[in-house]
Each structure stands twice: as C-alpha cells, then as structure tokens.
C-alpha cells in the first residue's frame, strides 16, 4: 500500500533540542521541539504579522508526526494527552497545552488577519482526527514553556467507535529551548 | 462531425475503466451536500462551482508552502489531459495566499493550471479537508462522495482507473 504522506510536511533543522521517534502497537510517533528562531522564520515566511510572531515567540512548539500502522482507526485527541514535568513521574506538574480556541481568542485580540489565522491553523495538529489505516498526520502543538525537561504521555483510542484497545506512548526528556524567546 | 468528436471524448472517459473500490488513501464520505464554492480565479473571474455540477467534480485544496502539494500539482495537470472536462470537472482552490504567491508558484510548477483563490481561507474551512493537500470528489448531484487524503499521483493507474469508472457511470 503506498504510503500516505504527512498532511503537513515542513522541515526545519533541529538545532538544539533532540527529536524523539517511537514505534509501538502499530503507532509511529515523532516529536521534535522547535526553537523560537525556527518558529519565527517559519511563520514569517508564511505571512504572519509581527504581532503574531511576537506572541508565538512566547510559547513552546512541538512538531508532531503520527502514522497509523494499525488495521483499524486510531484516534488522535491531543486533549487526552498529558505533558508532565519532572520526567513524567506521577507527582510531576502538568504542563499546559495551548489549544486552538485559545489561539483563536489571541488572534482576535491582536486583530490578526483571517488569512494568517487560517495558515496558522493548517500548521497545527488537529484537535480530533480518526486516522484511517496507513493515514498520517502532522502538525504543531504549543505549550506554556515549562521550566525544565518534561514528558509527553500520549493516549490513543482505537476502533471506529473508540472502544478498542487503549494505547499509551510516553516520550521522556523533551525540552524547549528558549534561546531567542521574547520573554 | 461534432457528434463524432463528442463520442471520441466520451470514449476517453470510459477507456480502461475497471477499478471497483477506491484506491489506497481515498475514503468514502457520507454524501452530504458539498458546501458552496464561489470564488474568483487568477483573472478575477467569479466562479460558482455548483453551476457546473451535472458530472463528477474534483475539488482540490492546496497551498504553496505545502510540500506534497508541490509534488502533486503536475499530476493534476496530467490528469486533465487524460480526463478532459467532458468527463470530470477539476477545480483547484488555493488556501489563504496572495495572488502574487500563487501566480509565481503555478508559473514555475504547472503553468497550464489555473486556480480559484480562497483569500481568507474561510471557504476551505467550510469544506473541512483533513489537511493540505486534500481532494474531494463530488458526484453529479453535488454530493460529497470521496476524500483523497494527502497527495498522490493522479495520473497513475489506480487513481486514473478509479476516476474513469466513476465518470463512466
């Protein structure tokens, strides 16, 4: 079966933070922390205005790729994922994810043009997606910058009704470089 | 004479028709009505796609910054050669980019292609593609029937045969 390409394909050399790749239970997960410089260059080239770029420089960006290698539907639901500092230990603190509605409110307050909002939206990981067998998806997630390293605990429902086997993948030792950040 | 030309074009639609199921990477949709698609092209001409339903229609959403879009674009041009408008309407919709960017891109990648311009991205939002690129197949009654996930070679056997079978019905 021909591979379905990531719906979002852009590549920026990882200069500081380490990428992570996991493959287990028919799920391939790729996570790459981005630096503020990388994000600024990427979105400036796509026409986002200076006010939006300043806002983006304040947050932590992770580029995430996901490939469903299972023979059933795999549910992408970042709202069900946890980002935890202290290396993912249970007592670790939650790292807050900035979801799409929050970005929409920020863009509205900053009067960012609709075209720029739309472009930004296409580069974000969907909030919910029923990934078909062999389907891939890619995009960015944004976090309130944590102080140190953190872990991603990604949970996936499976099956058309989401009632199949629950899959959990943990990506440890993630970090967000703040070099070049505005605050 | 004109009758023979039409017959010849229609035979192009039917040639090689043998695919039964959608090829990999295409999913069936529920047949809900296609959202409105009224946009201007690069010449400023207003186009209402619904006015041209009555045959199968491929609606392709794309952007210049999207890598798979760049690779897929020439194959759409080839598809247009193999399945002329008498068989299949093909509309490209650029999402949220300037006319200058789009014009320069198409000139370098597929100068024979034109596109509609969704300048603020709001029409694309209403169609709800799962990402870019995305291609919808709309039946002659204006209902959404298939969605192609990501990019592909539209002029290759599985996809071309599938489209030939669809348009022959």
Your description of this structure?
- The complex is a heterodimer of chains A (183) and B (169).
- With 183 residues, chain A is of the alpha+beta class.
- The termini of chain A are far apart.
- Chain A is globular, with a radius of gyration of 16 Å.
- Chain A contains four helices and nine strands, in the order ββααβββααββββ.
- Chain B has an eight-stranded mixed β-sheet.
- Chain B is an alpha+beta fold and 169 residues long.
- The two termini of chain B are 25 Å apart.
- Chains A and B meet through helix 4 of A and helix 4 of B.
Short description:
The complex is a heterodimer of chains A (183) and B (169). By secondary structure, chain A is of the alpha+beta class.
Instruction: Report strand % of chain B.
Output: 15-25%
Structural class of chain A: alpha+beta
Largest sheet of chain B: 8 strands, mixed
The tally of strands of chain B reads: 8
Count of separate DSSP helical elements of chain A: 4
Compressed to H and E, one letter per element, the order of chain A equals EEHHEEEHHEEEE
Net shape of chain A? globular
Question: Mean pLDDT of chain A, rounded to whole units?
Answer: 87
Low-confidence stretches of chain B: 14-19
Number of strands of chain A: 9
Helicity level of chain B: 25-40%
Q: Are there runs of chain A of 5+ residues with pLDDT below 50, and where?
A: 1-16
**Assembly status:** heterodimer
Shape of chain B: globular
Rounded to the nearest angstrom, the radius of gyration of chain B is: 15 Å
Strand order of the largest sheet of chain B: 1-8-7-4-5-6-2-3
